[in-house]
């Protein structure tokens, strides 16, 4: 028996047992240790999907679809849709 993940931002504030960040050339993966879920932030310049949740479009996800970019040396800007 399993439960649905908390979703963002509730997963950051309740039942947090730690997070793991994995940075690769084209993505950053954030893994939540509590409910063993992960969020992928694409860093390769792709656009967010359009028409999420509509017929013919991609399905909605608990953590949505995310793209990111670095703003300066130490600020990560993440855009997300499709919750």
Low-pLDDT parts are: none
State the total count of DSSP E strands: 5
**Series of secondary-structure elements, N-terminal to C-terminal:** HEEEEE
Structure class: mainly beta
The largest sheet is: 5 strands, mixed
| Average predicted confidence as pLDDT | 86
Report the end-to-end length measured between terminal Cα atoms: 23 Å
Q: How are strands sequenced across the largest beta sheet?
A: 1-2-3-4-5
- Radius of gyration, in Å, reads 14 Å
**Number of helices in the DSSP assignment:** 1
Shape: flat
Helicity range? under 10%
Strand content of the residues, in percent? 35-45%
Describe what is shown at a glance.
By secondary structure, the protein is mainly beta.
How is this fold's topology laid out?
Elements: H1 10-13, E1 19-23, E2 27-32, E3 37-42, E4 65-71, E5 75-81
Parallel strand pairs: 3-4
Antiparallel strand pairs: 1-2, 2-3, 4-5
Keywords:
single chain, 83 residues, mainly beta, five-stranded mixed sheet, 5 strands, 37% strand
Fold and architecture overview:
- The chain is mostly beta strands.
- The chain is 5% helix and 37% strand.
- The chain is built from one helix and five strands, in the order αβββββ.
- The chain has one helix at residues 10-13; strands at 19-23, 27-32, 37-42, 65-71, 75-81.
- A five-stranded mixed sheet has the order 1-2-3-4-5, with no helix packed on it.
- A hairpin with a 3-residue loop joins strand 1 and strand 2.
- It is flat and about 30 Å long.
- The two termini are 23 Å apart.
- 8% of the residues are buried.
- The model has no long low-confidence stretch (mean pLDDT 86).
